[in-house]
């Protein structure tokens, strides 16, 4: 075994340890954020007969998000309830249910880890943003199948025109992200493309199995 081989093995081992460390730190941080968010919701949120599946927070700005995990919760603000019609609200809630049911937080996790492990890497930041956009589109697909594209698109247009509260850290927000891109996609007839769920899994496996690509791609 040459010195080059030894160096390559040492570098690979160090990179793996660094990434695993970032994974542990990220998981612990996310768990803490979500635990605190659930505690806060227990203090300030309330049940509403009009939206039995969600917790309602008193706030005039628009907010709709889910706290993922085994004790998942869907949260909307009173501003959202006052803004949306019944069909629009149903589509937004279906969007959040999709995040919870398909565990989109786990699809995002590898990319959050890579962004934390390699904060100097532009590639890591871009990948996480793009996968987050794909996750929102996947949830849009589920909501549109149940309630139609028109209702969801109408809700997104209302969100775009209003003051929006950003989703708390560690959660997934239906009113966040690139709303214009999501509206453009909803206005386009569905194509026979590979399902987004499969695409997300393929990207995650590829990136996690080849972390060295972060150093080869431009910063």
From TrEMBL:
What this protein needs as a cofactor is:
Zn(2+)
Q: Where is the Peptidase M48 domain?
A: 53-111
Q: How is the cofactor bound?
A: Binds 1 zinc ion per subunit.
Query: Pfam families in the record, alphabetically?
Result: Peptidase_M48
Q: Name any one GO molecular function.
A: metalloendopeptidase activity
InterPro entries per record: Beta-lactam_resp_regulator, Peptidase_M48
Among Gene3D superfamilies, the record links this protein to:
Metalloproteases ('zincins'), catalytic domain (3.30.2010.10)
The keyword Isomerase belongs to this UniProt entry's keyword annotation:
no
Protein name, UniProt field: Zn-dependent protease with chaperone function
Taxonomic source organism: Nonomuraea rubra
Show the taxonomic lineage: Bacteria, Bacillati, Actinomycetota, Actinomycetes, Streptosporangiales
């Amino acid at each position: 075994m040459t010195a080059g081989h030894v160096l390559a093995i040492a570098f690979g081992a160090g990179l793996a340890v660094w990434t695993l460390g970032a994974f542990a730190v990220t998981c612990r941080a996310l768990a803490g954020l979500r635990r605190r968010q659930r505690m806060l919701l227990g203090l300030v949120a309330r049940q509403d007969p009009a939206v039995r599946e969600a917790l309602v927070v008193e706030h005039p700005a628009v907010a709709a998000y889910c706290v993922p995990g085994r004790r998942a919760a869907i949260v909307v603000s009173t501003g959202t309830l006052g803004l949306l019609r019944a069909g629009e609200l149903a589509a937004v809630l279906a969007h959040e249910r999709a995040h919870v049911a398909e565990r989109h937080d786990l699809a995002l996790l590898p990319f959050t880890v890579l962004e934390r492990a390699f904060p100097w890497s532009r590639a890591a930041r871009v990948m996480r943003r793009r996968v987050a956009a794909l996750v929102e589109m996947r949830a849009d697909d589920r909501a549109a199948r149940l309630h139609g594209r028109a209702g969801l698109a109408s809700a997104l247009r209302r969100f775009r025109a209003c003051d929006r509260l950003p989703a708390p850290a560690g959660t997934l927000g239906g009113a966040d992200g690139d709303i214009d891109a999501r509206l453009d996609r909803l206005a386009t007839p569905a194509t026979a493309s590979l399902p987004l769920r499969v695409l997300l899994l393929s990207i995650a496996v590829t990136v996690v199995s080849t972390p060295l690509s972060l150093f080869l791609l431009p910063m």
